[in-house]
Amino acid sequence: MCRPGMRHFWTNDKKPYLCKRLTGTEVEDSTLIARVKAGDRGAFNELYGIYWASLVNYAGLFVGDDGAEDVVQDVFVRVWLRRDNLRDDGTLQGYLLRSVYHASLNALKKGANATAYRSWVAQQIEQSCYAHYDPDDSEVIRKLYSQEIAGQIDAAVESLSPKCREVFRMSHIEGLSNREISERLGITLSTVENHIYNALKQLRQKLSHYKMLILLTMYILGR
How far apart are CA 86 and CA 79, in angstroms? Predict the structure, then answer.
């Protein structure tokens, strides 16, 4: 067995497992998962507060701002109803991103059957670029990410207001949780979420060209 603070990972041949020390985020996620699985509504509300804003922005890349909140709301409902199925050996962020990814695709498919209207970006994503948004495809994303594109996105990030830029970098580049950012900067959790929401909204507008929008997502998921 692994020592406290470590997690076991099976090797490819399913023989002796390897022990890996958990990061701070993984330890926090593991604790939160355990509490949610135990039916702790407070823990679920905490999970909701931590990930809501970033997941809404992620879903918005597929279904647009109008449908993003509905997609994420449905995902959280399913998480609670199926909380017994949550795994202790994965990060919540990865699990939630995959859930939102698939829920967004399902929403687009249902929309295609129910209504004639689809945004140009949504059509293009459905036709050729679903894989680029798949959170499990991070290796591909990193390979496709180029220095030239990085420079353009970095310039767009630099154009954000100072506080908005600082929060965005801490969240998407340093990988800090919303709660960690809140504590470090001495601001409320909702203020952090608003800064992240506004940053991503402005970046989507500045990089509104379809290919640049895809690469913005690569930039965020691949850092």
Answer: 8
Indicate the CATH number for domain 24-130.
1.10.1740.10
Query: In CATH, which of 3.30.420.10, 1.10.10.10, 2.60.120.40, 3.10.310.40 is domain 145-223?
Result: 1.10.10.10
Give the rounded percent of residues in the chain with a pLDDT score beyond 70.
Answer: 60
**pLDDT: which is higher, 173 or 48:** 48
**What is the C-alpha to C-alpha distance for residues 111 and 18, in angstroms, rounded to an integer?**
45
Beta pairing partners, 21: 6
Q: Which one-letter DSSP state was computed for residue 40?
A: -
Residue 62 pLDDT? 79
What is the spatial distance between Cα 214 and Cα 122, in angstroms, rounded to a whole number? 11
Residue 20 three-state SS: strand
pTM assigned to the model: 0.46
Return the amino acid letter for 215. Answer: L
